[in-house]
Amino acid sequence: MRRTATDILLWVVLAVPVVLAWPGHNAYPLWLLLLSIAALGAAVGVSRRYPLASLFVVVALTAVDGNFSFSLPVVSYLVGRRMASVLPAAIGFLAIVAVATPYVLVDAGFFVWTQMAGVLVYAGLFPWLVGRYRRQQQDLVAAGWEHAEQLEREQRMAADQVRLRERTRIAEDMHDSLGHELSLIALRAGALELDPDLDERHRDAAGELRASAGAATERLREIIGVLRDQTEPAPVRPVDEDIAELVRRAKDSGMAVDLAYEGEIGPLPPMVDRAAYRVVQEALTNANKHAPGAAVTVRIRRGETAATVTVRNAAPPAGPLPAPVPGRRGLVGMTERVRLAGGTLSAARPPSGGFEVVARLPYAAAPAPPTPETSTDRRRLVQRQARRGLIAAFAVPVALGAVVGGTALAYYAYVTANSVLPPAEYAPGSASAWTGLRSSGCCRTGSGWTPRPGTAARATAATTAPTATCCAHGSTSTASASRTAA
């Protein structure tokens, strides 16, 4: 629908010069004008699918009316813009020259042929080159966006793998915690089963409880074993290690790291605690990898509804690394872990240097859905901004021209309305008439109005009834000499 409206508007714009000029010359009948306008509309209609055919139609219409040449630059531009190959357009222009040259040379002569050739070059070939350049530019832009989308898909696939790996780690953490608790339950149930103070019925119930706990532990181990990534090394950290022990082990390994608590000190919810531990663990790993030897500060602030974990490292003492370290998968894993906990994570370089990771973990929240910005969204945003800029670039000159043109028309109307003298100013015998005679070079004497010496007015003898011919505002006025002196 939008393309149809655009084609109709283009047809109307191209047909206006022909329709407005036709009443002035009437060089051909009305039916031929209507047929030509219809052919121009057909050319515009097929220009999207058959652009070269629309060019041939417009060139043929210029033989009917020269005003159709105003359509030639537009159609030539569309040929270059809408055709993917150069060869058909080149053959088309050569065919136009080959067909039109004998006709023009025989019918109009060499001078007219040179004029027509110049029109074809400047109104046909140059706009086609502009359209061709525009098409190549948009093809390059589209190829760039496609390449960006392909890279984004690859990065998204890698990020999905990291997220799956992070979820596997969460499952392993749950296995460690739940397996430990189920083992304690089985151990206590076994002790009750061997207690001699219990009767046979209670010892049987304790035995069933011990067996159920053991079976649950075994099923949990099998499930986590299926989810476990065999490429990763087996975990060597202690089960249920907290952040303080993690920081202590980092200090023992030689890192300059400090731990600070703000707010109430107490156990966090299990999901929040494991997410905070994972953030600190990955942030310390990244600090050791990207800024070796830099001081690291870990700050945990516990609020009323959420806990905030901040890990910040200073700039490396030896300066930036000579080559960038590949990675950023750790940030993806941290983001996924925090998201599954219902929190948010930000990682950036502060103005003072170094790197800072801040995770906000609410105590009770559902996992937030991932909302990554895709290249398609960015492309739409860029297209909207470019469209707005084009509209503004077109609207500003139009508005300025409208203001200037309106002001000029208003001034012209005012001057025209106030530059015509009323008819009473030219009435015979009026004061304005005498003023006109005096200003035109006549003077009043005793016998009447006579020309001043040196003027072109003619006068008869003053003794008889002399007349004086006086020029006022480009017209000849005759003053009768029968007027007597006062």
UniProtKB/TrEMBL annotation:
It catalyses: ATP + protein L-histidine = ADP + protein N-phospho-L-histidine. The chain crosses the membrane at residues 55-79, 86-104, 110-130, 389-414. CDD domains: HATPase_UhpB-NarQ-NarX-like. It comes from Phytohabitans maris. This is histidine kinase. Its EC number is 2.7.13.3. InterPro entries: HATPase_C_sf, HATPase_dom, Sensor_HK_TwoCompSys, Sig_transdc_His_kin_sub3_dim/P. The keyword RNA-binding does not apply. Pfam families: HATPase_c, HisKA_3. Keywords: ATP-binding, Kinase, Membrane, Nucleotide-binding, Phosphoprotein, Transferase, Transmembrane, Transmembrane helix, Two-component regulatory system. Residues 274-363 form the Histidine kinase/HSP90-like ATPase domain. It is an enzyme of class 2 (transferase). One of its GO terms (molecular function) is kinase activity. The keyword Thylakoid does not apply. Residues 166-231 form the Signal transduction histidine kinase subgroup 3 dimerisation and phosphoacceptor domain.
